[in-house]
Amino acid sequence: MSPGKFNNQYYKNLQKKMGLLRTDQMLYADSRTSPFVNAMAYAPDSVFHNQFAASMTKFGNILDPEVQEGGEVRADCGYVNSYDY
């Protein structure tokens, strides 16, 4: 709806059942996350930008699993590679 802008239209689209991916649309369908979708849909762009920046900062601070104790890169994201007890 607003391809040239970086704003909260994504959340408004979810409310209209216009999510790009099925997994996106599930954010609005799930009672645990739909309040967040509603809040972000009506938040000023400044709130959206601040929340996005905070999320990207958290994402950037994820440690490399191969250097963490017990970490691994999964061959299949739905399963651990092995159980070493």
From TrEMBL:
Cofactor dependence: heme b; Ca(2+)
Catalytic activity entry: 2 a phenolic donor + H2O2 = 2 a phenolic radical donor + 2 H2O
An annotated Gene Ontology molecular function: heme binding
Alphabetically ordered keywords of this record: Heme, Iron, Metal-binding, Oxidoreductase, Peroxidase
Enzyme Commission no: 1.11.1.7
Sequence ranges assigned to domain Plant heme peroxidase family profile in this UniProt record: 1-81
Biological processes, Gene Ontology terms: response to oxidative stress
InterPro entries: Haem_peroxidase, Haem_peroxidase_sf, Peroxidase_pln
PANTHER family: PEROXIDASE 6, PTHR31517
Family: Belongs to the peroxidase family.
Protein name: peroxidase
